[in-house]
Structure formats: structure tokens, C-alpha cells
Amino acid sequence: MKNLRLLDTGRWEVRLGVPADVRNSLGRRELKKSLGHISKQEAEILAGSILSEWKGLILKERQRSNGVERTFNTDLAEFSQDKEKYRQFAVRSLKEQAGIFDPSEEQILAYLNDQLEDHLDVFASTDQIRATFSEYCYPASFLDQYVKEKLKHHESRSQSEHIGVINNQLIASFPVIDKSFSLSKVQQWWDKLNSPSSGKAPSTLRKYRSHCRSYMDWLIRKGYTNRPNYFDQLEHINKKQIAKEQRKRGTNRKPFTDDELLTLWTALVFKKRPDKGLNNLFLLGLFTGCRIEELCNLTDQDVRQTSDGRFYLEIPISKTEKGIGRKVPIHKTVESIVLGKIGYIIDAGKVNNKYGERSSSIGKKFGRLKDSLGFERGKVFHSLRMTFIDKLKQVGTPEVIAADIVGHEIHTMTYGVYASETPVEQLFQYVDQISYLSLELSL
After folding, report:
1. Structure pTM?
2. Residue 182 neighbours by CB under 8 Å, 6+ apart
3. Which end of the chain has fewer surrounding CB within 10 Å, N or C?
4. Could you tell me the CA-to-CA distances from 119 to 111, 116, 296 in Å, in that order?
């Protein structure tokens, strides 16, 4: 270790030159510390820890001077792919150069840290070195990279949900993934969550398993850990179990009946303070089957016209990839709501949601309205989408075409993998047949 030397007095000393760009701010040209009368091996271990601390100080000062804050240097990520090769190099070098035949984890990491600084001019903190080269995996070190790579197309709310589950479940329960990480430990974690005392609903547990499994799978594929993905071996919670639990709690979503739609529309029309935005949102949801956030983000730029003069919507954002960019025919009944608008089609009111969701405020208005009318918990705005899908089914719409309209995935090889989307001109023949007689008479 070039930064360590034995003085004439028999004491070991560790020294590190301060780079020119931070000398003024640190007020020193060199950092040094006496380690006392100890063995060479003890000195190297202690020096490695001190040098890592000093290099972290230098890195922090550089970041402060540049106005940059980073918790992980992504420039080191490339080394993780071949970390075993670098570790073997460090072990061999420590044996040949320092006579250390069985180096500790700290000695290996300190040596690799020196190599980065000496040969690549890379200064990294102790946490960065550990995350990159340790034989153990620290899952917290890679979460930011995971979000950027795997969750970049997710909406803000979805990203926050994934991050919350990974932080509060996987990282909190397994901060270090090492040789002790086993199926029995993961199963114990899962059993505790499944116990009645946890109060976790099946739908919540399904998310926990799914998000933890996905993150662990990514860590394995990136080469950050070679431990098995035990989350994949946990008992799967299927949608039937979730539906059963929701029925028990009375929270499973249900479509509206024609009479219920008339009740809602009458209440909207005769509100003391008329709300045109909410009225339009209700009608568009009923005749397009779009999700509330999809509708609230529509602008005049998303309205298209076919060669024969019919109008349709091209959905700009959606909960799923299948839903983005899909073409939804505009029913004649609601054409007047869409045409002639400039800017957003739905006046959603003030946007005060932390995720920037335009549907937050107006969605709550709908919720308060239907609650005041005595509707059960399972009847929500999404029930309009279910009602629309029921109508498509009643008029004989093939499932693959209905899926194209509402943005559902088709999980078959023929239609799900090889088939292209149905031309929008063919979708009109099914959407045009949808009718809500009792409601349309009052429009």
C-alpha cells in the first residue's frame, strides 16, 4: 500500500496527498495520521479505513464545490459486471506485493479503492466501493439505477409505490444479500406478512411479492448478486384470492346499472353549483371506457380524424404500455364535448396532487357525489369503464377488438404477440352500437 510507511521510530504512518482542486477549501496539501506501534497487517487494515474516510471527504468537497449531490457514482457501475475478476486481482496482488495470504474484506476493498485512484483518477466513497466490489450485495445502493432503467416509463405514483415497497420490505428486511440470504429467511419474512396480525390485504401482499421479485431479478441480471431469487418461490397470490377478499370487504369494483347511471346523471345536472367539467368527464368515461387520468390528460392535439370524417382519440398517457397511443372512437353522443376545444378537453380544476395527476381533484368530486347518493364502496369512477366493457360485450364485440379499444393486454401467442392493432375504422361499428337509453333521453 503506497500510502503507508514505517517510520524510523517504528511507528506506522498513513499519508494522502490532497488534490490541487480541493486544497484551498480543505486548507491542506497533505493528510497524514500516525498509527502507532502495530503489525504491518494491522496497519494496512487501519490505513484502508482511514484512506476511505479521507477519499470520501475529498469527494464530498468536490461535490459541494460543484453544487452536485450524488449518493452513487454510476461511473463505477461498469465494474460490478466483472467484480469477481477485480476481487481475484486484488487477492493475488495483496499476496504478491504485501505478503497477505488471506486478506480480509476490508483489505480487498481498500486495495481496489487505491487502484481506482492511482490508475483511473477515480475518487469514490467507502459506500460506493463496497456497493461495487463487495462479495455481498447492498440492494439500497442500486435502487436509483433500477428506477432510471426499469421504471422510467411508469407514472410518478407507480414509481413511488415500487420504491416504497422495495425500501420498506426488501431493503429493510434484507439490507445485505450475502451467503446467509436463504429461502427459509425469505419464507419467514413472507409468513410474518401473511399472518392475521399484519393486517395486510391479499392485494397488498401480491404487490410486495411482485415488486421484490422484480428488483431481485434485476440485481441478478445486472451481476450485482449471484444469490437465487427466492421471492420467486413464494406462494403466488392470484386475482381470485384478491377478488374474494374484496367481496368480503365490499370493495370489489362493479359496473353501474342503467338506472344507477340515470341517478348519477340527474344529480350532476341538478347540482346547486353546476360543474361542466365533471359532467363531461362522466359522459366521456361512459362512452369511451377510458380511465380517469387518461381522460383528464387529453388535449385538442389528441383528437384525430379518419379519412371518412369520423373522430377518434389517441391516448397520450396510460397506466399500461398497451394503453398508450391506442385509438378510441368518439361516440356521436359525446362528439360535441371534444370538438372545438383548445387545450385540455376536461376542465379538471386545480391540480394539487403531489404526483401532478390532473384527475385527483375532480375524481374526489365524483367520489363525494356518488357517496352522497348512497352508492356502495365498489361503485367508483372506474365502474364506468366496466360498464362500457359490458356494453361492448352485449353488442357482440370480439374480445381482441374490445382489448384494443380499452387498452388491455391479450395473453395469447397468436393475438398477443403477432397480431397488430385493429384499424380504428373497424372499431366504430362496435362503439356506435353502445347505447344507454334512459340516460340518452335526458341528454
Report:
1. 0.58
2. 230
3. C
4. 12, 6, 55
Grid cell, residue 269, equals 345536472
Q: How far are the Cα atoms of 34, 44, 92, 102, 135 from residue 98, in angstroms, in the given order?
A: 20, 9, 10, 11, 22
In a shared domain, residues 201 and 72 = no
- Residue entry with cell 504491518: 40
Over its C-alpha atoms, the chain yields an Rg (Å, rounded) of: 30
pLDDT for 170-199, tens place per residue? 999 999 998 889 999 999 999 999 898 888
Sign of CA dihedral 288, 293, 296, 297: negative
Number of domains present in the structure of the chain? 3
Q: Are residues 234 and 306 in the same domain?
A: no
Tell me the β-bridge partners of 33.
14
Measured CA to CA, the distance from residue 319 to residue 257 in angstroms comes to: 26
With respect to residue 253, please indicate whether it lies within any of the assigned structural domains.
no
Phi and psi at residue 329, to the nearest 5°: -60, 145
Same domain, 215 and 350: no
Same-domain pairing of 172 and 52: no
- If we measure between CA atoms, which residue out of 140, 186, 192 comes closest to residue 166? 140
Do you know the residue count of the chain?
A: 443
Residue 112 C-alpha cell reads as 481496489
Phi and psi torsions of 288, nearest 5°: -120, -25
Q: Is 383 left (phi over 0), alpha (psi -120 to 50) or beta?
A: alpha
Q: Which of 248, 275, 294 is the last residue of a domain?
A: 248
Each residue's pLDDT tens digit, 298-310: 999 999 999 999 9
Q: How many CA atoms lie within 13 A of 256 on its CB side?
A: 24
The residue range of the domain holding 9 is: 4-135
